[in-house]
Amino acid sequence: SVNPDLASERQTASFSVEKLTVLLDGGVEQTRRRRAVVEAIESDPVFSRENQYFQTQNERYEAAVRKGVHLQKKMHEMGWTENGPEYKYIYRALSGDVAFLLHRVFMRSISVLGSDKQIAKWIPLATQHKLIGSYAQTELGHGTYLQGLETTAVFDTATQEFILNTPKISAMKWWPGDMGRSATHTVVFAQLYIHGKCYGIHPFIVQIRSLQDHSLCPGITAGDIGPKMNFEHIDNGYLLLKNVHIPRENMLSKFCEVRPDGTYVRQGSQKINYFTMTTVRISLISDEVLTPLMKACTIAIRYSAVRRQSKLKPGEQEAKILDYQTQQEKLLPQLAAAYAFHFINDYLQELLNRGYREVHRKNFDMLPELHALSSGFKAVITQCCTAGVEVCLRACGGHGYSLLSGLPSLYTKILASCIYEGENTILLLQTARFLIKCFMAASAGQPVPPSVTYLAAVKPGKCPARNKLDFLSPDIYTEAYQHVAVRLISSTAAKLQDLIQSGIKKHDAWNQCTVQLVQAAKAHCHYITVKNFAETVEKLETKAGIQKIMKHLCDLFALHGIFSNTGAFLHDGYTSASQMDMVTASYLDLLAVIRKDAVPLVDAFDFTDKNLNSALGSYDGQVYQRLYEWAQKSPTNQMSPAYERYLKPLLHNTLSKL
Amino acid sequence: SVNPDLASERQTASFSVEKLTVLLDGGVEQTRRRRAVVEAIESDPVFSRENQYFQTQNERYEAAVRKGVHLQKKMHEMGWTENGPEYKYIYRALSGDVAFLLHRVFMRSISVLGSDKQIAKWIPLATQHKLIGSYAQTELGHGTYLQGLETTAVFDTATQEFILNTPKISAMKWWPGDMGRSATHTVVFAQLYIHGKCYGIHPFIVQIRSLQDHSLCPGITAGDIGPKMNFEHIDNGYLLLKNVHIPRENMLSKFCEVRPDGTYVRQGSQKINYFTMTTVRISLISDEVLTPLMKACTIAIRYSAVRRQSKLKPGEQEAKILDYQTQQEKLLPQLAAAYAFHFINDYLQELLNRGYREVHRKNFDMLPELHALSSGFKAVITQCCTAGVEVCLRACGGHGYSLLSGLPSLYTKILASCIYEGENTILLLQTARFLIKCFMAASAGQPVPPSVTYLAAVKPGKCPARNKLDFLSPDIYTEAYQHVAVRLISSTAAKLQDLIQSGIKKHDAWNQCTVQLVQAAKAHCHYITVKNFAETVEKLETKAGIQKIMKHLCDLFALHGIFSNTGAFLHDGYTSASQMDMVTASYLDLLAVIRKDAVPLVDAFDFTDKNLNSALGSYDGQVYQRLYEWAQKSPTNQMSPAYERYLKPLLHNTLSKL
């Protein structure tokens, strides 16, 4: 039975939840297929995550391997394939709680970086799981800066082998997933040396464990890097190489080859390498970043509709905490952000698909823009969604802090997305570099990529809003965001030039501008997000109330961004103080409007209870029963293991020395 | 041997680290005593936290009990007492990783709320550990709003007993520490009923487990609430009461008594109850909030001095990440905040001591101000320090995400401080209520408490700064902070009045202002913090370079606050856009200045390696060796437990169905 406090929230929905779900999925067929996958996965007890919050790192790892193996069977049974339309739903249904994800990266590396002959040899082996692959790039002392990697691969013409070494402790490979305990092979990135000359970083296939008994191969030291904030199910590993010999054929050689006599040959364009990183950054947004935020919103908003605490009106029942303005101000902007980023993800996916087609025709012109956008959006979205999950956790008070709420695990996992696949600050500075370059080009009248043409149309001006309702006009706020982005990019470009002209060296000048460059890159991404949200809303069907509620969310997302960062909009007087008061008024009004549809808006994300895995967020809102039943199953619910040895002697005053 | 990259940072310190340590401790004698305690604790293997990051919840709990018991012996041996000067150092040296903290709360409750007779009976029993106490206030459905508690205590004149019940699942006690598995007794807060009439919440001593064999007493259901984001060492518990009979004498009756015939007698002032909460909120700041931030700063800054990544100048060695402006902008404001809050903590302690003396003389006039300040500062400091620890964690990239860095545990633990002892938003609204009241009083020419007299002196004015150096003047920035606080308080007071005058009911009007009231309360606390930091710096000795570096930190703290919240200062034109550019310039300049002393400034916190318990933060900076050695000890470093059952059949293609 559904908690009446939650049921009542659903009766007053202003729109069709099912239609919104279909919109988010991209069509009726997609919704049907997703639900079929979820059903197949969740009805299979091997994939259960029921005990997850009680398990040790070892148990989590073992379960992930079991699921990884079982998934192969399941896919065979169901007729699902790695490239089929179901795959993304499988991952979402499993909440990523499965081993061998790096095996896929191993295969992709070979497909992209390997010669046809290498692909023909290794891909079938990997597909049939005659080996388990990993991907060893990051070192203990080296992450961001690939050129700094210290692992070496020295070519020996005599034996036609490469000899691999991690010459110092900081050169040790560190972090690769699936490598600590599972993988038999890995792609090692190392500095290539031929006849004493260094040719830079290249990828090599290295076997690390025996296919017979899983023992470590000669010269290999490998193991697990130990406990982390999350990802207990993954055996992130370390790898030391001591004079490990591999055949010449194991250097992945689509782009570079070492001939038997030691001649180094570079072939084809390496630009495609950049493109791989771009693809990875965009692809992680949906599964690793948006889904957790959507789950956190679902949990926190459903909980806030059934949790009653304190009184809003004297003499009445205690109020739902969702009715407090401060609670709305915490949660509803996160909900709006989840939708905003869902739509920008669609935009990025489309751009990426276009990029694919162009690259396929050997046209690499889109790559700089794609790289800049994927870097900036990866940083901005991971940062905002991580902060959003934390807000949701804290908004649930003590119960949010219990692992059983699901929120701590969502937080500790999404946090990693700010670090992996490019640390966010570094990525934002890459976006900033692109923006500064484009700004200079635009200022000089040269053509620039589509997403930055707005930089050419710099105009001073003032915000034309005259009352608080004007701030519900997408033109008004989109223009304001654009203005701020242009101002921050142009003023930082000017500072950079001033510093250089004053005699400061270019790299020092750049470093002295980086705090502001990061701000400029963020402003650019926020502008694009707001603009895209507004454009998406405009294109929606007007029926079923969906356009209306999406318009409210778009307004909220935009106004929340202004309200939380008023200085950027006030700085040069584009927005006046009284206009800012209008923004505040409109923003606070919107909270009360969206609050009415808050539960239907999270219902539309369509998470099952098993997928949420949360005592606070279940569809029926029976929070307290859930918490109590669940806690009773905890392995800590047994007689105190400290009783006989410590508590009893203490209480009976028989501790020797007391 | 110290990593040369770290050693070089220490050679150029602009001040005496030892002198700064002594300043932080409050005197030479305190430093000596603290170090003696640390030495005694850390040389005792029972208190080791070496394996903490590898332990399960059960193991952590058992270790905490072992340490709790051992601590009794140790204190006896060393001649330390609970009220002695060593006690606070003991807790810090143990990093709070010890059981029976609620036993102390149990004792304090009895001392404060019990009659002399009750104190005489229970305190000796507790002191001698003939029982283990806990404190059961929070319920599954009730935290913040005490009046809403649902547990009942019905007085039965026939038997002269109270009969206690948790009549619904939401009435179950939930969260009390030490109660899940250890405690034999607890103080239960329940609605008192006599002859069918409810007299509100009262405290009752209830035995929950047998002193003989630790089995649960009749009518008691109790256990552990399961896994949490941290605090694995504490057995936070649940408690169901079903017709539990306790004697009339077990109601703590300093303030209220139930006579044998059922007559209810209220005696003395209950104002003192408020004071207890105030005391707890202030006392948690140092150990639970400042220490973690100081540790996080120590870890992140030492690591940033030895981590080299990417190049600042082409052709040179990779740069220390501490040399990047963006890294400085992440870490140095957190360091400044640690110092700012250390000094405001001194201020609050002094105020509290004065409060104690006044209350002792039955003068309760200071209580409202103390309550408002302790609430607001508890919220602001826990919030800023939690955010600060997270910044430190993320600033260390992947290695910060390893539990071995120590940072994840610091974060997941400090996060709880935003929730316990009053949820932060609720607390800020209490401060706001006080501020609005004082503002109205001050506007009407009535006297107000010392910390808010500035509200009486509202003047419009403009910031007089003319160049970026002017913003290094404490008068300039303190005035700016004061101006913002007054503006936010007065404008919210005006909005509130307008709403009420427009016919909106008082409680609705209040709810519609809460987002802005929270901002106003924060602005008040920030102003007091900046003012207090500036005044503290002024009073410091000018020798040994300490005043100079503290002045830099004070400037940084103040300017960072403006830089991160420019809108508040720009809004009414108090600060102009060009002045804001001066703030930015001064702020960024300061980063480079303080960066030079960053390592000495964290060295002054004087944490031992054992106390930091971090592979990244050790005094010698041998980060990579430490991570590798430590990871090798992880229980995950054994042959894959999934090999025989899953990996081998997969690799050998002998899985039945594949």
Automatic annotation (TrEMBL), chains A, B:
Keyword Phosphoprotein: yes
Molecular function terms from GO: 3alpha,7alpha,12alpha-trihydroxy-5beta-cholestanoyl-CoA 24-hydroxylase activity; acyl-CoA oxidase activity; FAD binding; fatty acid binding
Parts forming coiled coils: none
Active site: 421
Necessary cofactors: FAD
One Gene Ontology biological process: lipid homeostasis
UniProt keyword annotations, A-Z: FAD, Fatty acid metabolism, Flavoprotein, Lipid metabolism, Oxidoreductase, Peroxisome, Phosphoprotein
UniProt GO cellular component terms: peroxisome
InterPro entries listed in its UniProt record: ACOX_C_alpha1, Acyl-CoA_ox_N, Acyl-CoA_Oxase/DH_mid-dom_sf, Acyl-CoA_oxidase, Acyl-CoA_oxidase_C, AcylCo_DH-like_C, AcylCoA_DH/ox_N_sf, AcylCoA_DH/oxidase_NM_dom_sf
Family: Belongs to the acyl-CoA oxidase family.
Protein name (Swiss-Prot/TrEMBL): ACOX2 oxidase
Source organism of the structure: Atrichornis clamosus
Lineage: Eukaryota, Metazoa, Chordata, Craniata, Vertebrata
